[in-house]
Amino acid sequence: MNVIKTDIDGVVIIEPRLFEDGRGYFFESFSSRDFNACVREVHFVQDNESRSSYGVVRGLHFQKPPFCQSKLVRVVKGAVLDVAVDIRRGSPTFGRYVAVELTEDNHRQFFVPRGFAHGFSVLSEEAVFQYKCDNFYEPRSEGAIAWDDPQLGIDWRIPADKVVLSEKDRKHPLLKDAEWMFDYNEDLYGL
């Protein structure tokens, strides 16, 4: 696998080695040995899948300690713009984000470490999105910031009149008004 570093330490894009022939293709989508050696040591405990239509924006979500999560995400059908926002107070990259297009054709994966809010927009007619989490979902630990926060300035690549949101995602606070943030100096993996 090829690990591509981004402008924010710990947030990486992963390109698998693809083996193609007349029958189609094969690639190893995950190897804990390779991931732990090349990215960071993580023990994934839950796999999730969602299907969404064009214009859907999901996010920007996170879970608070002790249930904070790293995510390894990929698209198996369609295309999304995937976004990770640094919400660790005191971080030199606080409030900055990385966005990457994940498609069924590029087979890229995106690693979102603990301490980041995560979201995506669906760029294709339909997208099937899969992600691994290193902690179980805990509803009481949910947190989020507004997907359209002007301070973040994320271009979701969807016209405003085509954006489809859940009722919950319409109500999240701006980053500057968020009641809770991660602490950059806290070891989020030692919890």
Please characterize this protein's 3D structure.
By secondary structure, the protein is mainly β. The chain has one helix and 15 strands. The chain has a six-stranded antiparallel beta sheet with strand order 1-2-11-7-13-5, with no helix packed on it. A five-stranded antiparallel beta sheet has the order 10-8-12-6-14, with no helix packed on it. Strands 3-4 form a two-stranded antiparallel sheet.
Tags for this entry?
191 residues, 1 helix, 5-stranded antiparallel beta sheet, 40% strand, 6-stranded antiparallel beta sheet, mainly beta, 15 strands
Number of strands: 15
Report the order of strands and helices.
Answer: EEEEHEEEEEEEEEEE
Q: Strand portion, in percent?
A: 35-45%
Shape: globular
Point out poorly predicted stretches. none
> Order of strands side by side in the largest beta sheet?
1-2-11-7-13-5
Mean pLDDT level: 96
Total DSSP helices:
1
What share of the residues lie within helices?
A: under 10%
